[in-house]
Design brief:
The protein is of the alpha/beta class. It has one domain: NAD(P)-binding Rossmann-like Domain (Rossmann fold, 3-Layer(aba) Sandwich). Helix content is about 50%, strand content about 15%. It is built from ten helices and seven strands. The protein has a seven-stranded parallel sheet, sandwiched between helices. β2, α3 and β3 form a beta-alpha-beta unit. The chain binds NADP nicotinamide-adenine-dinucleotide phosphate. The site of NADP nicotinamide-adenine-dinucleotide phosphate has 29 residues, from α2, β2 and α8. NADP nicotinamide-adenine-dinucleotide phosphate binds next to α2, β2 and α8.
């Protein structure tokens, strides 16, 4: 017996659930963002790897995706800057024709106890982590409304839910992302657009490597699963949200049980 597979059956058999979709991953050059970019590409999405300064790292991600037979391009843009973020979206539209999935992942820390926190520390974190999601999302929202499809996924943090010692700036930025997510979800729910946040706990990346070893050991002892998370475990949540059409306005906790 000969079984003839049509296009969609073929796509399913290869599990390319995101074939035909175009995704931007801000901060896709390192850490969580680079794993997200690769996993989206493995599912068939065409991926824009955004970076600020790490061109070589972004090009390495690009190379890995191409080796796997995927399609990607890397674009430099400081997403804390309105014009650069808007150009990032414009460049994506010129290159791939549209944007279906926006992963607002770029983020920084400038940890200091509040008494030592300078205005610069405050503004840098709010600009990169929170203002950036206004900058990028405002550029994609009208085209997404017109195409009646969009997946906006904001990388928040457990620190935006539970607070963090020495992290008033970071916590405020991440809590702001959750409020943004819920409000935009309400405004776009009727238009095929979902807007969700992911709240990672402590994930093994450069960001967490900066935490002193002793403090890290104490942290791990408080995590019910007794280990740090892996970037692949965050990427799994992104794929889940990118593939789902009835989850919106949610914050998915991926934290080993640290915050429930
Ligand atoms: P990371 O390893 O430090 O990587 C940060 C990424 O953001 C890099 O690709 C960096 O690009 C990019 N970036 C920074 N500033 C940027 C800007 N102004 N414009 C464009 N890109 C910029 O961080 P990570 O640990 O993977 O974290 C990724 C996201 O997850 C962040 O939003 C973070 O707050 C969140 N998160 C992380 C953890 C964790 O445990 N790691 C936990 C909760 C939430 P360049 O190298 O080019 O600057």
């Amino acid at each position: 017996m000969t079984i003839i597979l049509n296009d969609s059956a073929l796509q399913q058999s290869e599990n390319k659930s995101l074939a035909g979709k175009v995704a931007i991953v801000t901060g896709g050059s390192r850490g969580i963002g680079s794993t997200i970019a690769k996993e989206l590409a493995k599912k068939g999405a065409q991926v824009v790897i955004n970076y600020n300064s790490a061109k070589e790292a972004a090009d390495e991600v690009l190379f890995e995706i191409e080796q796997l037979g995927g399609s990607a391009v890397s674009f430099q843009a400081n997403v804390a800057n309105f014009d650069e973020a808007q150009s990032l979206v414009e460049n994506t539209q010129n290159y791939y024709g549209k944007v279906d999935i926006l992963v607002n992942n770029a983020g920084i820390t400038r940890d200091r106890t509040f008494r030592k926190l300078s205005e610069k520390d405050w503004n840098e974190v709010i600009n990169v982590n929170l203002n950036s999601i206004y900058h990028t999302t405002s550029a994609v929202i009208n085209p997404m409304l017109e195409q009646k499809f969009g997946r906006i996924i904001n990388m928040s943090s457990i620190i935006g839910q539970a607070g963090g010692f020495g992290q008033t700036n970071y916590s405020a930025s991440k809590a702001g992302m959750i409020g943004f997510t819920k409000s935009l979800a309400l405004e776009t729910a009727r238009s095929g657009i979902t807007v969700n946040a992911i709240c990672p706990g402590y994930i093994e990346t450069e960001m967490v490597k900066e935490i002193p070893e002793k403090v890290k050991e104490q942290l791990i002892s408080k995590i019910p699963m007794q280990r740090l998370g892996q970037t692949s475990e965050i990427a799994d949540a992104v794929l889940f949200l990118a593939n789902n059409s009835y989850i919106t306005g949610q914050c998915i906790n991926v934290n080993g049980g640290l915050y429930m």
